[in-house]
Design brief:
Length: 363
C-alpha cells in the first residue's frame, strides 16, 4: 500500500508543536498528544479557520518558502445578478476544517508531501472594479514570482482576468487556460463594465495568453449571452458544451482540452467556476444552471487536467448566502485539494517554476 511509504514526520512535529504552544492536556486526559488549547488539525470543529488549517502567513514576503499559497479574493463587484461571492473565501476556509490532509484512495498525505500556507485575503475595493483588479494582479504576481503555486479562492469570475494577468506578468512564456463553467464569460463589457461575464475577452488580450489556447468546458444552457458567441467564433477559442462532455466522456474531453491548452504553451492555468456543476449540488452560487457536471465528473476532470502540472488555479462564484449546509463551499474545497493531490501524486507540483523569468513589478 502507498500509505505504508508515507512518513509521519510533519504529523509528529505538529503534535509536538501543539503541546509546546498549547500546554499539555489536563491530568485526566489519557491521550497525551492532546494539548489544553487546540493547535493544529484537531478537533475539526475548533481553531482558527485558515485553509485546511495551514499556517497563516502574516508576512507575505515569505510565500516563497512554501510549495503552494492560498489567496482569498473576497470580491463580488462584478456580479450581474446574485451577489454574495465576497464571502466565498470565508465559506471555503470554514468548511475546510472538515478535511484531513490524507487521501486513502490516492495514497497521499499533503501535510507530509508538500508545504502549504494561507496568505489571507487581497484587500479588495468594493466600489471600484479596476482598482480591485490591480490589487488582485499585484497579489497573484507577488506569489507567482516567488515560485509558490497560487490557489485563489473567489470571489466572482471577474477576477479571472486579473489573476491570469498577475501570473503572465512574471513570465515571458505562453500560458494556456482551461476554464470550466456553464457560461462563456468572453464578452468585452457587460452593463458597461468589465464584469464576471467578461474575463476571457480581456485575458486573451494579454500578449502571452492566446485565445486559441483558451479551452472552455461545460458551456451551455440558457445563460450564454449571444454577444459572447461572436467573440468565441472570432477568437477561435475551444468550446466543449455539456452535450460534448456527455458524448465524448470526461477522459476524452480532458485529453483534448490538454492538447489545445498546451499547444505552443509552457504552462496552463485552471479556472474553475463552481456553477459548472449541476445546480442541485451547488445551490450557493450567483448564476445556477441545471444540467451541468456531476460532482464525480468534475473531480475526475480536474484530476486529469492537474496531473500535467499547472501554474496556478482559482475556484470562483461560491456564494455562501445562497448555500445550504455548506455543500457548495465543500465542493469548491474538494476541487482545490483534488488539484493539489493530483499534482503531488504525479510529481508535477512545482513544474511551473521553470517559466518564472521576470521579476515582480507592482501594478
Amino acid at each position: 500500500m502507498k500509505e505504508a511509504s508515507i512518513p509521519t514526520t510533519k504529523h509528529d512535529e505538529e503534535i509536538q508543536r501543539g503541546l509546546e504552544l498549547g500546554l499539555p492536556g489536563s491530568s485526566s486526559i489519557e491521550d497525551k498528544t492532546i494539548p489544553t488549547f487546540s493547535r493544529g488539525e484537531l478537533p475539526h470543529f475548533a481553531g482558527i479557520n485558515t485553509f485546511m488549517k495551514a499556517p497563516y502567513l502574516e508576512d507575505v514576503k515569505d510565500v516563497g518558502k512554501f510549495d503552494a499559497t492560498v489567496i482569498g479574493v473576497p470580491f463580488d463587484g462584478g456580479c450581474t445578478y446574485r451577489a454574495g461571492t465576497r464571502f466565498g473565501p470565508q465559506g471555503i476556509r470554514r468548511i475546510s476544517a472538515l478535511y484531513t490532509p490524507y487521501n486513502y484512495e490516492r495514497g497521499i498525505d499533503l501535510r507530509e508531501q508538500m508545504s502549504l500556507c494561507d496568505a489571507g485575503d487581497v484587500f479588495t475595493i468594493p466600489a471600484n472594479i479596476e482598482k480591485t483588479f490591480d490589487q488582485i494582479s499585484n497579489g497573484v504576481a507577488h506569489v507567482a514570482a516567488s515560485g509558490s503555486f497560487p490557489i485563489i479562492l473567489g470571489g466572482d469570475h471577474s477576477i479571472g482576468f486579473p489573476t491570469i494577468r498577475g501570473i503572465a506578468s512574471v513570465t515571458s512564456k505562453r500560458i494556456g487556460i482551461i476554464h470550466v463553467d456553464r457560461h462563456a464569460d468572453i464578452q468585452e463589457k457587460d452593463l458597461d463594465e468589465r464584469m464576471h461575464t467578461t474575463p476571457y475577452f480581456h485575458a486573451t488580450n494579454i500578449p502571452n495568453v492566446r485565445p486559441e489556447n483558451l479551452v472552455q468546458i461545460g458551456i451551455g444552457g440558457w445563460q450564454v449571452p449571444r454577444p459572447a458567441v461572436g467573440n468565441m467564433v472570432e477568437r477561435q477559442t475551444n468550446i466543449f458544451t455539456m452535450e460534448d462532455v456527455e458524448t465524448l466522456g470526461i477522459e476524452k474531453v480532458a485529453e483534448m482540452a490538454l492538447e489545445r491548452a498546451w499547444d505552443g504553451c509552457d504552462a496552463v492555468y485552471l479556472s474553475y467556476d463552481i456553477d459548472s456543476i449541476e445546480a442541485a449540488f451547488v445551490p450557493g452560487t450567483g448564476w445556477p444552471e441545471p444540467g451541468g457536471l456531476l460532482p464525480r465528473e468534475a473531480l475526475k476532470l480536474v484530476g486529469l487536467v492537474a496531473a500535467e502540472g499547472l501554474c496556478g488555479m482559482e475556484v470562483v462564484e461560491v456564494s455562501p448566502p445562497y448555500d445550504h449546509a455548506d455543500i457548495t463551499s465543500l465542493m469548491a474545497l474538494r476541487i482545490c485539494v483534488d488539484v493539489l493531490g493530483s499534482m503531488v501524486s504525479h510529481g508535477t507540483l512545482g513544474k511551473h517554476k521553470s517559466i518564472i523569468d521576470k521579476p515582480f513589478t507592482p501594478f
